[in-house]
């Protein structure tokens, strides 16, 4: 039964509509204005047909690409009492054009438009428009088009906002960051202007990191269309001050704004401008920054533009997997980018702290997941995992039964304050395995402790955390994959000071004192800090430079097999 006001005589109806568009001398209460707007919407839908669950199921099950969105489509129409969504007064609303345009431009998002053109939406509308109002088929065509638009939206929006690949269903991708929980049926309501506008309203991405990669994709595709770049070949090593033919190629590639005169031998000299350009290139590709044209720099220069485009698309996909709000209870979070060997602290979308890191070697790769830093442990014990006891410590004890003492280590009954020391002679080290070892080994606090002077705790199934290290020399390396999975920090005191900035009494001086104490001390954070351990091999930095890194663990290759 229709609401009573639909049956108002036509003169009264005209009066109400006139009121909607007539300036008022008396201010209108916002609640009353909303009521009038709702009334106008209802009037616009008066003569529209409605759908049914059975009809929706029947229609969507005819198309494989629509079928897997059946639940979403049903819920969307159920929430609106099965009224059509994309029509007002028998005409397709402007938002339908926005959707069709977004699908047509899917390649700009690193997606494939044909994947979402399941139905010829404009063709369906032309067919609908061509039918006279008296034709009984017209209503059916209207229903079909409305369903096709809704299903096409979910087909496209699911990939655009959540990712074309579900990382949690593909074990090889190894991505356990918390899911993006966007409710696409609610997002569609914003598209249709039926609820408060959000970024979804304009089919816009929600992360700046993604948007910057999208801009880079346009530029690299422009380079591709222009023929890409030529291969750089020359002597094995070219240093500043050298003269070589390859310098001409370097100038054309890295200094495109410079006018090169090939007949002028001065352009063959590896001068300061070329050195600076090579240094900048090495910086942007995570190479050893020495200004020398050597094997690794040659290799990075000669990666085809098509491969760089693929790398950009893969990393845009990873951004879609991240939650819309990276810091749900505040404005700050910590991000560890594993292939970059970097840790970033973000506040209100801006980078406020950055430092080098050491991550897990390939055999002990750092896992990709998210959590919350809950507390810091100053002057920590290093509780050695049994796997390391078996693989690394057991062989040393077989050769020297006193080896633990030389490393300021001890064998105990358990980790924690109730631990009691046990002589290592109690264990038959020839038959010991990680599974039958009933004791624990730990390293005492001190300057040589493997965890350094502080660790940042977010208890997790991987037993991975951020921590200091006495091996500071490792931070001078370009590739820093040396750990057993944990993340070592270049400037742990800076991060500790930042995390404790809102805790009374904890300034930098007290942080330094706690780090250099001889007794372990736990300090809880005022509020838990979100931390993301992620895997981006391409991104755009704060200065707008496109950065590329090697596929450290082969995750790019695994994702490419799923995505392309």
TrEMBL record:
Pathway: Cell wall biogenesis; peptidoglycan biosynthesis. InterPro entries: LD-transpeptidase_YkuD-like, LD_TPept_cat_dom, LD_TPept_scaffold_dom, Peptidoglycan-bd-like, PGBD-like_sf, PGBDSf, Transpep_catalytic_dom. This is Murein L,D-transpeptidase. It comes from Pontibacter locisalis. Belongs to the YkuD family. It holds the Pfam family PG_binding_1. CDD domains: YkuD_like. The keyword Cell wall biogenesis/degradation applies. Keywords: Cell shape, Cell wall biogenesis/degradation, Peptidoglycan synthesis, Transferase. The active site is at 467 (proton donor/acceptor), 486 (nucleophile). It comes from the Bacteria.
């Amino acid at each position: 039964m229709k609401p009573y006001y639909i049956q108002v005589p036509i003169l009264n109806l005209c009066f109400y509509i006139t009121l909607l568009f007539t300036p008022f001398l008396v201010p209108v209460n916002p609640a009353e204005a909303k009521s009038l707007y709702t009334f106008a919407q209802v009037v616009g839908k008066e003569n529209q047909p409605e759908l049914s669950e059975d009809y929706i199921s029947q229609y969507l099950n005819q198309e494989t690409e629509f079928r897997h969105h059946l639940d979403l489509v049903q819920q969307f129409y159920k929430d609106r009492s099965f009224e059509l969504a994309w029509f007002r007064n028998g005409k397709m609303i402007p938002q339908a054009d926005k959707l069709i345009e977004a699908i047509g431009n899917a390649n700009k998002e690193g997606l494939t438009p044909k994947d979402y053109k399941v139905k010829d939406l404009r063709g369906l509308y032309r067919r609908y428009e061509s039918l006279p109002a008296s034709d009984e088929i017209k209503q059916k065509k209207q229903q079909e088009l409305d369903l096709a638009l809704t299903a096409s939206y979910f087909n496209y929006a699911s990939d655009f906002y959540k990712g074309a690949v579900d990382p949690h269903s593909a074990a090889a991708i190894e991505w356990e960051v918390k899911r993006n929980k966007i409710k696409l049926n609610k997002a569609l309501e914003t598209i249709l202007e039926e609820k408060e506008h959000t970024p979804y309203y304009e089919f816009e991405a929600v992360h700046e990191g993604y948007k910057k990669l999208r801009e880079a994709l346009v530029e690299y595709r422009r380079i591709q269309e222009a023929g890409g770049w030529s291969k750089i070949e020359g002597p094995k090593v070219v240093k500043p001050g050298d003269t070589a033919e390859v310098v001409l190629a370097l100038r054309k590639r890295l200094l495109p704004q410079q006018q090169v005169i090939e007949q002028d031998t001065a352009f063959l000299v590896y001068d300061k401008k070329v050195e600076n350009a090579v240094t900048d290139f090495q910086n942007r590709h995570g190479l050893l920054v020495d200004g020398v044209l050597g094997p690794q720099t040659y290799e990075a220069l000669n990666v085809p533009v098509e491969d760089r485009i693929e790398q950009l698309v893969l990393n845009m996909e990873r951004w879609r997997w991240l939650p819309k709000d990276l810091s749900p209870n505040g404005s700050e979070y910590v991000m560890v980018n594993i292939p970059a060997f970097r840790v970033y602290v973000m506040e209100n979308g801006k980078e406020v702290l950055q430092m080098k890191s050491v991550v897990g070697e390939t055999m002990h790769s750092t896992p990709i997941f998210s959590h919350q830093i809950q507390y810091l442990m100053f002057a920590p014990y290093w509780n050695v995992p049994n796997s390391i006891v078996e693989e690394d410590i057991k062989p040393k004890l077989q050769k020297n039964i006193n080896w633990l003492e030389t490393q300021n280590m001890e064998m105990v009954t358990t980790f924690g304050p109730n631990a009691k020391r046990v002589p290592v002679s109690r264990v038959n080290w020839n038959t010991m395995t990680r599974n039958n070892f009933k004791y624990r080994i730990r390293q005492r606090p001190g300057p040589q402790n493997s965890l350094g002077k502080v660790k940042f705790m977010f208890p997790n199934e991987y037993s991975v955390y951020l921590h200091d290290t006495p091996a500071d020399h490792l931070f001078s390396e370009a590739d820093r994959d040396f750990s057993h999975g944990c993340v070592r920090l270049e400037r742990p005191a800076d991060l500790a000071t930042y995390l404790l900035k809102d805790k009374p009494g904890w300034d930098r001086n007290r942080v330094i004192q706690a780090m250099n104490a001889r007794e372990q001390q736990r300090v809880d954070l005022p509020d838990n800090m979100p931390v993301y351990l992620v895997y981006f091999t391409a991104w755009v930095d704060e200065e707008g430079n496109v950065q590329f890194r090697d596929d450290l663990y082969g995750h790019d290759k695994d994702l490419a097999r799923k995505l392309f």
